[in-house]
Amino acid sequence: MRYSWLLTFLALTVCMGCDFGPKTLPVAGEVTFDGQPVQKGRIQFIPVDGTPGRTTGGSITDGRYAIAKEGGPLADGTYAVRILGMRKSDKKIADPMSPSGALMQIEENYLPAAYNSRTTLKVVVCESSLDFRLEKTPATGAPAIMPGDQKGG
């Protein structure tokens, strides 16, 4: 009995290193559109089909994205995926930071709505490498996309 406090302390110390709760994964990969890297954009993983948790995502730079484990999606969670590809447009607006009212080019999303505002992309996250190969004309009625080499369309 006199050592029971020591055993309790040791048990608590061991469990402090345990990872309780849902397991998240780091996720990274490539995003292409019609065979070309998406140079600049955003990717979001939105939980669906009863997956708990929050939306997560990150920036796309030179056709690549990476989301750290700490902010990553849940392992075995089902997610709708939204991808924006941004590029400068021909439209210009007054730069709100410029006292002279200089014009600046605005950026616009150039990817079809089926990959963002009306996304048809869906994944079950069970590995850390998810590539998305998007096409100009997405296939209609495409099945849910699974991890690995993702193909939109």
Write structural notes for this entry:
This protein has one helix and ten strands; from the N terminus they run αββββββββββ. With 153 residues, the protein is mainly beta. It has one domain (23-152): Immunoglobulin-like. The strands form two sheets. Strands 1, 2, 5, 9 and 10 form a five-stranded mixed β-sheet that branches. Strands 3, 4, 6, 7 and 8 form a five-stranded antiparallel β-sheet that branches. The longest helix has 13 residues, at 4-16. The radius of gyration is 21 Å and the shape is globular. 24% of the residues are buried.
Feature tags:
globular; five-stranded mixed sheet; single chain; five-stranded antiparallel sheet; 10 strands; mainly beta; Immunoglobulin-like; 1 helix; 153 residues
